[in-house]
Amino acid sequence: MIEVIDLHKTYGRGTAATRALNGINLSVRPGEFVAIMGRSGSGKSTLLHILGLLDSPTRGQFFVQGRDMLKLTETERSRFRLEEFGYVFQEYSLLPGMSILENVCVPAIGLGKGNNIRKRATDLLQVVGLGERLKHQPGEVSGGEQQRAAIARALINRPAILFADEPTASLDVTSSRVVLELFRKLNKELGQTIVMVTHEPDDRQYVDRVVWLKDGLIATEDGHPRFDGVSDAA
Known about the structure:
Blueprint: E1 2-11, E2 18-28, E3 33-37, H1 44-51, E4 59-64, E5 67-68, H2 74-84, E6 85-89, H3 100-110, H4 117-127, H5 143-155, E7 161-165, H6 173-190, E8 193-197, E9 209-214, E10 217-219
C-alpha cells in the first residue's frame, strides 16, 4: 500500500538547516492500522504530511499502490489526495454556517460527485454515531462529536488510506476513547488502512503496529536506531 525508501526532509539551508527526516524506510500493508510515535520533534508529523501528499521530501522514494508519488504534477497530487486519501487532524476544521451533514459532503462536492452524496454522508454519520446530529451546526455539538463528523467527512470519498495527525489531542479522555474505538472499528470491520500520529502511550492498544521515530529515524521503543522501517507490534 505504502512504500517509502530512504526518505529525507530538510527545512532551510546552510547553518540554519533543520533535518526533520534522516533516511526513513517504511512499508504499510493494506488494511493495517499503524501508529507513528516518538517525542516532540522526532519527525512524526513531517512524515505523516509527506505520506499524505501535504508536503514533499528533500530526497528519497515514495510509492502508494505502486504509483510513484514524487512524479505527480501538482494537479495530479490534488486529485490523488481527494480520491485516495482521507485526513483527520487535531483541529476539526468544520465549516461554520453549514450543518454537520453539509460539512461531510464537502470533499465529495470537490470531486463533482452529486448523486447520492447526501445519502452516503447520512450513512457515514450513522456509522460514527451522529445520526441525530445531521442538521446541527458544528458549534452546537461537542468536541468529540465534531471530531467524529470530521472522520465521516474524511471517509466520504472512500479513501484507500486514512491519515490522522494527533486526532485526540484536543479531546477529553472519554471522547478520545470513543474516537480511537471508532478508528479500530473502521479498521477491523471495513478494512480501512489507517496511519495515525499520536503521543499517547495508551493508544498502542488500538493499533496493529507502532513505528517509533527518534531524530528523524526509525527506532525501537527504547530509542535505538532501526534501519528496516518496521517496529514491533504494540
